[in-house]
Amino acid sequence: MTETTETRTADPVATVSSTLLEARDLHVEFTSRGRRARAVDGVNLSLGAGEIVALVGESGCGKTTLARTLLGLERPTSGEVRYGGQPLKYGSKALKAYRRQVQLVLQDPTGSLNPRQTVYEAVAEGPRIHRMPDEAEVVNSALARAGLRPPERFLLRYPHELSGGQRQRVVIAGALALNPKVLVADEPVASLDASVRGEILALMLKLRDDLGLSALVVTHDLGLAWNIADRVAVMYLGRIVESGPVEQVLTAPRHPYTQALLSVLPESPERVVLTGEPPDPTRIPGGCRFHARCQILASGKAAEAGVDARCRGELLDILPASALSQAACHYADATG
């Protein structure tokens, strides 16, 4: 089959209870010089109230584009983003109200903060845009919740006067100042020293427990996913290829791509070295989109299971949004 025929879709209705934020059959395409890149190519994903979901995958797999689309920063080519059961509207007033509920925490706190603004000004920016009352009280409360106590010590400091962990806490405080329901955290600890990462992850878990916050954590680090997430969704070339409860997916991965990602962890008994780079999203291969790099296919195990031809030529259904463990893999289906 040609790539233009890849339209088979499973039922996208989520089975996650108390769904708060949802992607339904989401597609995001970019066109340049006549070439169409399918950055997000049919994703169903749900985030429940008070739940942390880790979205993992290599650079270029589409996870940041998916996160930006869930934030309303990109418009889907087709499919929809739903919040609180309602489709996201893209008018300026609707987006402003939505972004008070769903806040972004960026990877690089140094780049996120204006070096000419004090901590107070940085945290107060959102409340001012939304014309919230009692600005000083809101800022102090947000800093305290982000672990910068007493907040008075930090109000007049500039970013260069803070440590990396303190800067990341200021960024988190800026999001918390709007009392959001959801945080979308893009590689929230990637730029931090190892000694500080645990503190920031512990803070996010505390915010979930104390405030009922939900979080979508975008990361390439499966170790981070293990430490913080309730569920994990593994993304490859614009699609979720495996998802489920973090313990099930990371202790018994079914998709060869997830197995390869996990093999780089220190405790892994066997290292899987993937050949080549992820394919160009303007030229997604037919069959299983991972088959050109798949160690199961290359080793002959897929042939032994009688699915090698299917891996190369038969399209896989798009995974539904589900709380259950699932994988889009012919070999996993054949071997149980």
TrEMBL record:
Pfam families: ABC_tran, oligo_HPY. It comes from the Bacteria. Keywords: ATP-binding, Nucleotide-binding, Transport. Residues 21-262 form the ABC transporter domain. The keyword Transport applies. One of its GO terms (molecular function) is ATP hydrolysis activity. GO terms for biological process: peptide transport; transmembrane transport. The keyword Nucleotide-binding applies. CDD domains: ABC_NikE_OppD_transporters. SUPFAM superfamilies: P-loop containing nucleoside triphosphate hydrolases (SSF52540). PANTHER family: D,D-DIPEPTIDE TRANSPORT ATP-BINDING PROTEIN DDPF-RELATED, TRANSPORT ATP-BINDING PROTEIN. Belongs to the ABC transporter superfamily. NCBIfam families: oligo_HPY. This is Peptide ABC transporter ATP-binding protein. It comes from Nonomuraea glycinis. The lineage of its organism: Bacteria, Bacillati, Actinomycetota, Actinomycetes, Streptosporangiales.
